[in-house]
Design goal:
CATH architecture: Sandwich
Largest sheet: 7 strands, antiparallel
Radius of gyration: 18 Å
Number of helices: 7
Shape: globular
Number of strands: 11
CATH superfamily: q2cbj1_9rhob like domain
Helix content: 25-40%
Strand content: 15-25%
Order of helices and strands: HEHHEHHEEEEHEEEEHE
Oligomer: single chain
Distance between the termini: 24 Å
Bound molecules: 2-oxoglutaric acid
């Protein structure tokens, strides 16, 4: 544990990166971790993923629905695995998130390992924040491959310019969200950007509202990616009843899961939402 590399200093990013993110809702930032820094964390994340995977019953891939074929989704490792917590709560990553969001302090919403299996299916178009009961536009996800990945293994597609598009309706990840949102991209003329092949330790960041998905994994290699979601400190849980009618099942489930000690309208500062002050 103590031999894990220290990722606790903030990392500067350029104003061009922040401007690109603000304009498009996503951005790629290279070389956030070196290969030697990432390797021990990859091992820790893989161990945690195997441990969690052993506790769930997975259908053979051909018997799963589209969402199930897209990836193995292993959520919130940090509270259970100390070495993964060193990665997820690191100030290096949080400092980039805070800069992109234009705030000093962020809270971790949750992490998730997203492993697209060999020949795994596409990730349908969706909006992450559809699931989050957070009353802010200041949410961001880091998607970092833990191994070098090619576009053919399923790096993310983003609809540029959708970072502040807001709640588009109750569209959980499904064949339906794939159809509705890809049609919407065409109708509204959003250009689709894939940042291409990535090295382990590069990452893309996307806003909670940014429409995104991923092609299938057309290789025989597991696409290992780790994600961390942050939101601006002092964010509140959406009011209930909410005048914009944003509550849906996804948000109710998330409230119970990630903010079990908070109610609608309260500050989203529960025990599973640790505060990170990356610049202090
Ligand atoms: O890894 C994928 O294929 C999808 C990633 C995603 O939806 C996310 O990180 O929000």
């Amino acid at each position: 544990m103590t031999s894990l590399p220290n990722l606790n200093s903030p990392t500067p990013i350029s104003t061009d990166d922040v401007d690109y993110y603000n304009e498009n809702g996503h951005v790629r930032i290279n070389n956030i971790c070196t290969a030697s820094e990432l390797t021990p964390y990859r091992q820790a994340i893989n161990t945690a993923v195997s441990d969690r995977k052993a506790k769930i019953q997975l259908l053979p891939i051909e018997e799963r629905d589209t969402y199930g074929k897209a990836f193995l989704q292993i959520m919130n490792l940090w509270p259970d695995y100390e070495s993964v917590a060193r990665f997820v709560l690191a100030k290096r990553f949080a400092s980039i998130a805070a800069k992109l969001l234009g705030v000093d302090k962020v809270r971790v919403y949750h992490d998730q390992a997203l492993y697209k299996e060999p020949y795994g299916g596409l990730t349908p178009w969706h909006q992450d924040q559809h699931y989050w009961p957070l009353d802010t536009n200041k949410c961001v996800t880091m998607w970092m491959p833990l191994i070098d990945v090619t576009k053919q293994m399923g790096t993310l597609n983003f609809a540029s310019g959708t970072g502040n598009v807001g709640y588009l309706g109750d569209m959980p990840i499904s064949d339906e969200s794939e159809k509705l949102l890809s049609d919407m991209c065409k109708e509204r003329g959003f250009s689709i950007v894939n940042h291409g092949d990535m090295n382990a330790g590069d990452a893309t960041f996307h806003s909670g509202w940014c429409l995104h998905g991923a092609p299938q994994n057309s290789s025989n290699i597991m696409r290992e990616a780790m994600t961390i979601i942050w939101f601006a400190d002092e964010t509140r849980v959406i009011e209930d009843p909410d005048p914009q009618n944003r509550w849906n099942k996804g948000k109710r489930d998330d409230l119970q899961r990630w903010l079990p000690d908070r109610k609608p309208g309260e500050l989203a500062d529960g025990k599973l939402s640790p505060l990170i002050s990356p610049f202090e």
